[in-house]
Amino acid sequence: MAEVKVVAERCKSCGYCIKFCKKNVLAFGKKVNSKGYEYVEPVHMEDCVGCCSCARICPDGAIEIYK
Ligand code: SF4
Ligand code: SF4
Predict the structure, then answer these.
(1) Rounded-to-integer distance, Cα 35 and Cα 5, Å
(2) Averages of pLDDT over each 10 residues, the chain, 67 residues
(3) Residue 50: per-residue pLDDT
(4) Using alpha carbons only, what angle is made at residue 60 by residues 43 and 19, rounded to the nearest 5 degrees?
(5) How open is the CA angle 55-34-47, to the nearest 5 degrees?
(6) What's the DSSP call for residue 17?
(7) What domain range includes position 45?
(8) Measured from the CB, is residue 8 less than 6 Å from ligand 2?
(9) pTM for this one?
(10) Given ligand 1 and candidates 3, 24, 51, 67, which is best to mutate, with the most ligand atoms within 8 Å of its CB?
(11) What is the per-residue pLDDT for 1?
């Protein structure tokens, strides 16, 4: 099983990672970062298969995967 970490301050709420995760692991959270963006959080971490699609698609390098 993999662990996904979103670096909140790098996220700009573009939603690409949410769209590209086929397992629906990610969603916008209710908290905002210092720039005012509702950053993404893992909401179904148990379903993550560690494919790294989210990390590859993120234009801001905000997602780190640990296996
Ligand atoms: S590593 Fe793959 S399954 Fe896990 S959150 Fe990212 S896109 Fe989804
Ligand atoms: S792709 Fe990156 S910047 Fe866009 S919502 Fe996901 S974590 Fe945030």
Answers:
(1) 19
(2) 94 98 97 98 97 98 96
(3) 97
(4) 45
(5) 30
(6) H
(7) 3-66
(8) no
(9) 0.95
(10) 51
(11) 77
